[in-house]
Design a protein that fits this description.
The protein is mainly beta and 120 residues long. It has one domain (29-116): ATP Synthase, domain 1 (Sandwich), CATH 2.60.15. The chain contains three helices and nine strands. Strands 1, 2, 3, 4, 5, 6, 7, 8 and 9 form a nine-stranded mixed β-sheet that branches. Strand 1 (29-34) and strand 2 form a beta hairpin. The longest helix is centred in the first third of the chain and has 7 residues, at 2-8.
């Protein structure tokens, strides 16, 4: 009976509670990682980036709010789409996360962690 009255009275239809569809969230984000002398990653598509900043450590996903942080010396971990992790040692710098989701790191000096321990 109630559903029939909704069909007959459009004004009543406007008063019925409904919920919005969930927005599609991107699972990956472009990642740009540079130092003054080289580009370590140029718009690589990643799932997550874990960073150490002056305000604490956190993981960045594609749906993260835009932020600007100062990097603390330590390890930045980059998780690729397949889940493999690549670690970079950074001596400092900054991270910028834009609304588009683009994660950008500019650092003083960065080295891939595996390269730190290779024998010459």
């Amino acid at each position: 009976l109630f559903s029939q009255s909704l069909k007959q009275h459009p004004a009543l239809r406007a008063m019925v509670r409904s919920y919005a569809e969930a927005a599609a969230s991107p699972a990956q984000m472009p990642f740009h990682f540079t130092s003054p002398t080289q580009v370590l990653c140029n718009r690589a598509t990643v799932k997550q980036v874990d960073v150490l900043t002056l305000s604490g450590s956190f993981g960045i996903l594609a749906t993260h709010v835009p932020t600007l942080q100062v990097l603390k010396p330590g390890v930045v971990t980059v998780f690729a789409e397949d889940g493999t992790a690549t670690r970079y040692f950074v001596s400092g710098g900054s991270t910028t996360l834009m609304q588009t989701p683009l994660c950008s790191y500019r650092q003083k000096r960065g080295t891939r962690c595996g390269a730190c321990f290779q024998k010459s």
